[in-house]
Amino acid sequence: MLKVGLIGCGFMGAMHANCYKNIEGVEIVALADLRREKAEELAVGTNAVLYGEGKDLIAQADVDIIDICLPTYLHAEYALAAMDKVKYVFVEKPVTLTVEEGEALLEKSKQTGCRVQVGQVIRFWDEYVELKKMIESGVYGKVINANFRRISPRPEWGWNNWLLDQSLSGGAGQDLHIHDVDYVLSIFGEPKTFYSAKNPCGEPNSYVNTLMLYDDCVIGVEGTWDLPGTHPFEATFRVVFEKAVVENAGGKFLLYDKDGAHEIAIEKKELVGEGYKGGNVSDLGGYYNELVYFCERAEKGEAIENATLADGVASLKFLMKELHFGA
Ligand SMILES: NC(=O)c1ccc[n+]([C@@H]2O[C@H](COP(=O)([O-])OP(=O)(O)OC[C@H]3O[C@@H](n4cnc5c(N)ncnc54)[C@H](O)[C@@H]3O)[C@@H](O)[C@H]2O)c1
Fold this sequence. Notes:
single chain, 327 residues, alpha/beta, Rossmann fold, Dihydrodipicolinate Reductase, domain 2, 2 domains, eight-stranded mixed sheet, 14 strands, globular, binds nicotinamide-adenine-dinucleotide
């Protein structure tokens, strides 16, 4: 049984806990949150020991893996401590607030041998996984151009409103837009050149729009949380290949070719955990897939090869270049 310690039981901690409860051979044995009631909610259905301060969990809990779902500005401090304790650490995205902190984590992982996965979850999201296969197989020819877009109302749910303080979260750039940037980098690598724009007035880093230019294609990546609460969250893409167009928008995943529009089927898997029967794994999005991957690697003692610490730091570095473009 793989013993999980989860630090931070807010919005993302709750999602991770639901995933672990649905992975065979995995048990949440320790939960930490300064808000006791949040840890208690996630403890339902487990025998987890509850902690307040995350550092107490790191010091005292008997765990195999530690998962850090704390506000971004705390990632580095807690990840460094966790890497001294266990051999596998999961850190939510963005890996850290600053590149320097990310590099400190890389150094620590060299010293300790600790294997770290970063929550760059889009790499594990069904539609994006399918798209990657299409691009890499060349089944529809080369990509000519593409657009990835992630738009959201302002995130007002954070503990003490930390998300809306850009000095703590990094704003929409680090919190939202980095998902698509990381995905594009994971397939296409760094562009030959790029242009990037932010809001010329108003809140900086709440809107980022970047054109990434490669030798034979151009990719636009847009992210914003400038929208009112009445606007739905949307994550969409459109990829124009030589022989077809693939679009994921409005809840539809479609392939357009010379014969018409065809729905692209995604295999559905049922949830297994107590209290989840009848639900579908896709209800847990790519979070389930990324944690299955992480737990499998930890169980077998294998290296993390997707959404690695180095990947997370590389994406953060590119994001910083976007945010400073033209400055
Ligand atoms: N992968 C994704 O799609 C995705 C989505 C949302 C958030 N996130 C990331 O997840 C992380 C957490 O975000 P969130 O939305 O869950 O935030 P949140 O505010 O909902 O939760 C953070 C929790 O940490 C607790 N906490 C703070 N300091 C603590 C400490 N020292 N010890 C123990 N508990 C402490 C708070 O009480 C709170 O419950 C962030 O890095 C965010 O960027 C990722």
